């Protein structure tokens, strides 16, 4: 893998944790392809900022919950790699895109369940499968989970169940892709102030105070706390970490 030509694909890279990770990776000499679901202008802004950091970048539209679009996405990605990098492979896949649904177990609807499953479990499963031919041997897969797969907060039963599935899947990816020297790990952020779930944490002083009181480092998390961890887990020095769950939560509910 050419250290000056590492390429990362980040789903949901136009906002929140994905955007922060894209910037941190660019600062670590990694080129980036981000995906966005609907806001092209937001994605183009991220691409522009990555290029200002001296790296190459591109943005592609993708709805990770719609498996039927993955063939065309893979073809578009292949063309983008050829056009911008004269390559037919990329190095890192960061499955980050997500949606949040918060509702008591007794009230979760089938439609809400399906949205979460299609985005966080089915989409990740089949997108990764579809992109396997494009991942370079020796590459890495990083799946974003949640602290909620370890600790429990009422209202997240369906969301956390999908993330639990991703954590198991990641171990299987590590095992089955080892022959290609592709590693697979899970990053589980704690509560982070983003626009996730409509900015529920960021916009609630009461919720922020509760999270801070339950976190060993005494505050809520910020996107900057996560982007750097993603960059670190894709750095050359961390290549021997495989099949692991790394939580970045400041020590929530220890």
Structure notes:
This protein has one domain: Rossmann fold (3-Layer(aba) Sandwich), CATH 3.40.50. Helix 1 (16-27) crosses helix 7. The protein has helices spanning 16-27, 40-52, 70-85, 110-131, 157-176, 205-213, 223-233; strands at 6-10, 30-36, 57-61, 90-95, 135-144, 183-189, 245-248. The protein has a 7-stranded parallel sheet with strand order 3-2-1-4-5-6-7, sandwiched between helices. The protein has 7 helices and 7 strands; from the N terminus they run βαβαβαβαβαβααβ. The radius of gyration is 17 Å and the shape is globular. The model has no long low-confidence stretch (mean pLDDT 94). The longest helix is centred in the middle third of the chain and has 22 residues, at 110-131. Strand 1 (6-10), helix 1 and strand 2 form a beta-alpha-beta unit. The protein has 254 residues and is an alpha/beta fold. The chain starts with 5 loop residues before the first strand and ends in a 6-residue tail after the last strand.
């Amino acid at each position: 893998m050419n250290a000056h030509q590492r390429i990362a694909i980040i789903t949901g890279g136009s906002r929140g944790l994905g955007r922060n990770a894209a910037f941190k990776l660019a600062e670590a000499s990694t080129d980036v392809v981000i995906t966005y679901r609907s806001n092209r202008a937001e994605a183009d802004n991220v691409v522009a900022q990555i290029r200002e950091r001296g790296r190459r970048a591109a943005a592609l539209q993708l709805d990770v919950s719609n498996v039927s679009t993955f063939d065309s996405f893979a073809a578009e990605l292949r063309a983008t790699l050829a056009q911008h990098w004269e390559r037919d492979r990329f190095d890192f896949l960061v499955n980050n895109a997500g949606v949040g649904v918060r509702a008591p177990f007794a009230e979760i609807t089938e439609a809400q369940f399906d949205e979460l499953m299609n985005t966080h479990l089915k989409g990740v499963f089949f997108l990764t499968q579809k992109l396997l031919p494009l991942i370079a041997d020796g590459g890495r897969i990083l799946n974003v989970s949640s602290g909620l797969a370890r600790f429990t907060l009422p209202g997240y039963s369906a969301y956390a169940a999908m993330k639990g599935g991703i954590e198991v899947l990641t171990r299987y990816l590590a095992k089955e892709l080892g022959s290609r020297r592709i590693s697979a790990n899970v990053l589980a952020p704690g509560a982070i102030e983003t626009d996730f779930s409509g900015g529920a944490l960021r916009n609630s002083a009461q919720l922020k105070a509760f999270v801070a009181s339950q976190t060993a480092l005494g505050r809520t998390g910020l996107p900057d706390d996560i982007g750097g961890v993603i960059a670190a887990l894709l750095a050359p020095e961390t290549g021997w970490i495989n099949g692991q769950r790394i939580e970045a939560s400041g020590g929530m509910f220890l």
